[in-house]
Amino acid sequence: MASLMDSSRSSSGAAADPAPDSVVLAGGHTLVRATRRSVLARAGLDVVADVADADAAAEAAETHQAGLVLLDADVAGGCVAGVRRIADRSPRTGVLVVAPELNRERLLAAIRAGARGFVAETLGASGLVRAVEVALTGEWVVPRAGVTTLIEQLRGSTDEETLVGGLRLQLTRREVEVVTLLREGLTPKEIAFELDLSDVTVRRHLSSVTRKARQARPLTLALGSTS
């Protein structure tokens, strides 16, 4: 696991300091949250709230001035939307996204939205505790396998290979963001609000993705017929 120091979270500003070692659990099945609560409690971390959806996570983060929200990637209300809401309502609270496995699209979308890190459940109990402890210190938490993805973005890669409908498409960063939010159940209008775009622009991105998928499908069929 790699970590990078986040220098943007200083002690300046009018907002109250987050409560040290305090964590809000958000999203995932009730049993999963109960297990995570138990794991973190045994490590001496204070779980101040246990909620089911993104809106409740943002409210709990603000109410408790939590140091961190451990946000399930499949949280009701959408992971990316949840990260944004938490950042808006409690900007001093970090967000660590936990997912069944490392996913390039989800990693990038979460980090862009303002998450402090992204971890896979395959880390196990001790790995999860370590990730939470690191995030609570104000550092970024990124699995080794995700570092290459972030470096590629910093180097200015304009297109990303993304799986859409079983097809590997080369999409722009904005197209990936739109598709990711669409997969989370947001409508084009909601996507426009989250990304600060017009409805027309969002639909234009969706049309572009559809066109690329149509162009790729005949090629896939042709390759299959010659095998």
The CATH homologous superfamily of the largest domain: Response regulator
Tell me the fraction of residues in β-strands, as a range. Answer: 15-25%
Strand arrangement in the largest pleated sheet: 3-2-4-5-6
Count of structural domains: 2
The residue ranges in which pLDDT falls below 50 over 5 or more consecutive positions are 2-15, 219-227
The top-level CATH class of the largest domain is Alpha Beta
Radius of gyration: 19 Å
Q: What is the helix/strand order?
A: EEHEHEHEHEHEHEEHHH
- Helix count equals 9
The class by helix and strand makeup works out as alpha/beta
Terminal CA distance: 41 Å
How many β-strands, per DSSP? 9
Form type: globular
* CATH architecture assignment of the largest domain: 3-Layer(aba) Sandwich
- Would you give the CATH topology of the largest domain? Rossmann fold
Roughly what is the average pLDDT, rounded to an integer?
A: 81
Oligomer: single chain
Q: How much helix is in the residues?
A: 40-55%
Largest sheet: 5 strands, parallel
